[in-house]
Amino acid sequence: MHAVVRRYTGVSALIDEMNRRQGEVSEVLSSIEGFTAYYAVRDGDALTTFTVCEDEAGTDESNAVAAEWVRDNLPTLTVSAPQVSGGDVFLSVTG
Asked: Of 5, 9, 19, 10, which is closest to residue 73 (Cα–Cα)?
């Protein structure tokens, strides 16, 4: 498995729009081949997202899909490029 973390700041409008359109966001991300999981965490006006896919090709595609979704759905919103980090998942614990 491969995971990618994106950290955005100053994006209250993006968070609100993602919250309002959760079904659409879920549909777009789950269409990625090898998609496993996605989490979005709000911290004030900051947003951290976690995407897990079977391989790096999937997380690379998720980065492109996320950027495209923001461009297409929030054309008047200026969103700075997020901090992005990723790597191979070596431990997974679920409840």
From this structure: 19
User: Backbone phi, then psi, for 27, in 5-degree steps?
Assistant: -65, -45
Q: Give dist(CA 60, CA 37) in Å, integer.
A: 14
Domains of the chain from N-terminus onward: 2-86 (3.30.70.100)
Q: Which amino acid is at 77?
A: L
For helices 22-30 and 12-20, give the axis angle rounded to 10 degrees. Answer: 80
pLDDT tens track for 37-61? 999 999 999 999 999 999 999 999 9
User: Which residue type is seen at 79?
Assistant: V
Tens of pLDDT, residue by residue over 83-95, are 999 999 999 998 8
d(CA 11, CA 33): 28
The reported pTM is 0.89
Residues 51, 59: contact at Cβ < 8 Å? Answer: yes
